[in-house]
Amino acid sequence: MSPALPRWADLALIPALNLALAFLAAGLVVVFIGEDPVQAVSVLIRGSLGSSYAIGFTLFYATTFVFTGLAVAIAFHAGLFNIGGEGQAILGGIGVALAALWLDTTHWLVVLPAAIVAAALFGAAWAAIPGILAATRGSHVVITTIMFNFIASALLVYLLVNVLRVPGAMSPETRRFAEGAHLPFMHTMLGHLGIGMARTPMNIASLLALLAALGTWVLIWRTRLGYEIRAFGHSEPAAVYAGISPVRIIVVVMLISGAMAACMALNVVLGYQQRLVLEFTAGAGFVGIAVALMGRSHPFGVVLAAILFGMLYQGGAELAFEMPAISRDMIVVIQALVILFTGALERMVRGPVERLFARRPARAAT
After folding, report:
1. Which of 109, 105, 64, 106 lies closest to 85, judged by CA?
2. What pLDDT does 365 receive?
3. E strands, 55-101, where?
4. Which of 16, 194, 270, 291 has the fewest C-beta atoms lying within 10 Å of its C-beta?
């Protein structure tokens, strides 16, 4: 963050301007294909927030993005670009499925802790190898984690086709978990409190995502390890001079990041699908990169950015249904524009804003 730029401007103003430019560009695309951009925005907002059904689906998607966004954000604080959230989530799904298949005749209160541990261990183990290679051999984290995404995808296919598939079944997926492993849905939990909500996939994993965000904030800003992570991310030479071990920080951060990404499987595999299927991640590991960028790697910002992308996913589906000229591919274009303006073109907004705030003291002096 520039010394001339207030923290509120860095965390709120610049992301808001980037988002406004992204939606302006998306609006021009909508006009180009002959549709009304105002109506499109109205449909998108109504489709994502206009009912308890829409809100439930929006928050279901957001829950997944909170986990993957936090995973990327934690690595960002150490100056690492963990682009392997997709593969780490796949391994997390395998761990969750194995725990559920083993314990699904008990109760979800037994299955859930075991699934959390299994997901975290599998995801951390998958991220540990690129971390160790980066810390000890100088391998680039971006390259190794991308490669491990493909390996994880191939491993999932092999397991579902040759090991975990139900005998005689054609579909490459595990058996459906028994009722003892089904996580409570949010509409059921709220129903017990007398609060009506439409039936959606949103489940108790949404509360776990909020706890994960709170835990990340405590880790990064309220612990000695978090201070070392941030110091290392700001300046590796200064961190080494202060006695901080680069090898330890890189490996530990990758372990935590991988475990966080893997926990998205709790929401999808254990909470919604209730079985392990191919491509259950649906690109959530890559969306987490955009969520972390937009959220400025702060847990609160990550949660808000995850909700935004949840709105784009759910509202986009409604938009494609009500306005057929805006296809699902167009929704992907809108998401790509958000990523473009909040990531690659972020300096286009930051530069002028920094210059504007830098001139303020001079004007005050005159």
Report:
1. 64
2. 47
3. none
4. 194
Q: Which residues of the chain register pLDDT less than 50?
A: 1-2, 365-366
Contacts of 227 (CB under 8 A, 6+ apart): none
Query: Which residues does 238 contact at the CB level (< 8 Å), separation at least 6?
Result: 231
β-strand partners of 203: 185
d(CA 300, CA 92): 24
Nearest to 258 by CA among 96, 85, 67, 70: 85
Residue with tokens 């059904």: 53
Closest CA to 96 of 207, 262, 286, 213: 262
Domain residue extents for the chain? 66-287
Rounded to an integer, what distance in angstroms lies between the CA atom of residue 157 and that of residue 173?
9
Reduced to 3 states (helix: H, G, I; strand: E, B; else coil), residue 152 is helix
CA quadruple 133, 135, 141, 145: dihedral, nearest 10: 40
What is the per-residue pLDDT for 4? 62
SS (H, E, C) 268-301: HHHHHHCCCCCCCCCCHHHHHHHHHHHCCCCHHH
Q: Say how far apart CA 111 and CA 104 lie, in whole Å.
A: 7
3-state secondary structure of 203: strand
Residue 254 one-letter amino acid: M
